Amino acid sequence: MADVRGVIHCLDAETGRCCWTHETKGQMVGSTLVADGKVYTGNSAGKLTILAAAREKRLLGEVQVGSAIHATPVAANGVLYVAAQGFLYALQKTGGQ
Questions:
Q1: Which burial class, exposed, middle or buried, applies to 20 when counting CB atoms under 10 A from its CB (0-12, 13-18, 19+)?
Q2: Is the pTM above the cut of 0.70?
Q3: I need a labelling partner for 3 at 20 to 30 A (CA). Which of 12, 45, 53, 90 fits?
Q4: Is 87 helix (H, G, I), strand (E, B) or coil?
Q5: What are phi and psi of 53, to 5 degrees?
Q6: 29: number of Cβ within 10 Å
Q7: Does residue 42 contact residue 49 with C-beta atoms inside 8 Å?
Q8: Domains delineated in the chain
Q9: How far apart are CA 74 and CA 69, in angstroms?
Q10: pLDDT at 97
C-alpha cells in the first residue's frame, strides 16, 4: 500500500507487520496496483515506480513521465494504463523479453 507522503509499504497479510518500505520522493494520492507479480504506483513528481510483489524488496524500474500521476494505474487485456496530468500512457510488452 502507499501513503500520501510517497512511501510504499509491503505488509505481511497474516501478521500486519511491515516487510519493507520504499520512498518514491513525491506525494501519492492514487493507490498501488498489483498485477503480474509487480506493484505499480505513480506520484506527484511524475514517476511511475515498479517493484516486485514479494517479501523481499526489489525495485524493478522507475519511469519519469514528465507530469503528475494522481490516478491508480490500471491493467486490462495485457496493457498497463497510466493516467498522468494531461496524458494517458498505454504500455504493452511486445516481442523480446
A1: middle
A2: yes
A3: 90
A4: strand
A5: -85, 80
A6: 14
A7: yes
A8: 7-92 (2.40.128.630)
A9: 12
A10: 58
Q: Which three cell numbers stand for residue 93?
A: 510488452
| Rounded Cα gap, residues 93 and 61, in angstroms | 15
pLDDT in tens, the chain (97 residues): 999 999 999 999 999 999 999 999 999 999 999 999 999 999 999 999 999 999 999 999 999 999 999 999 999 999 999 999 999 999 998 876 5
DSSP string over 16-83: --EEEEEE-SS---SPPEEETTEEEEE-TTSEEEEEESSSS--EEEEEE-SS---SPPEEETTEEEEE
Q: Which amino acid is at 53?
A: A
C-beta separation of 44 from 68 below 8 A:
yes
